[in-house]
Amino acid sequence: MPDVVVRPLIPADRPRWNVLWAGYLEFYAVTPDPEVTDSTWRRFFSVDEPLHAIGAERDGALVGICHYLFHRSTWSATSYCYLEDLFTDPGHRGGGVGRALIEATAAAARRAGSDKLYWQTHRSNTAGRALYDKLAEDLGFIVYERRP
């Protein structure tokens, strides 16, 4: 398989990002308001935002996306890096795209001086978890969520 090239997303990536983003949202069975999606896209390019977006290319085609952010923690003097979204085009799974995006995010976290890189996924994501178990440790935490 050709090499995977990871790079920051650029505004011209929006059409392909839309397709990959829709696939990610479909997996999690969510449909955000279109304004939320537009706002998210704009945040990627704002210097005032801690949100970052990278993409993985193979043969010049965008085949994976990853969004991450840095945040403060009461357990660290520096920051943590949260990998919020990761998606690989189904036709390119198993070929190193997800791993390349995670490793690129880890490198960004190191450059930023973050103490930790972490992410979460649904327990039913067996394909993703097979990769994650090779790259990180499942610490056994359970995530609770509610609307304020």
SSE blueprint and pairings:
Elements lengths: L4 E4 L5 H14 L6 H10 L7 E8 L2 E11 L8 E9 L8 H16 L3 E3 L7 H10 L13
Parallel strand pairs: 4-5
Antiparallel strand pairs: 1-2, 2-3, 3-4
Question: What this model shows, in words?
Answer:
With 148 residues, the chain is of the alpha+beta class. The chain has a single domain, classed as Aminopeptidase, CATH 3.40.630. Helix content is 34%, strand content 24%. It has four helices and five strands. It has helices at 14-27, 34-43, 97-112, 126-135, and strands at residues 5-8, 51-58, 61-71, 80-88, 116-118. The chain has a five-stranded mixed β-sheet. A hairpin with an 8-residue loop joins β3 and β4 (80-88). The N and C termini lie far apart (46 Å). The model has no long low-confidence stretch (mean pLDDT 95).
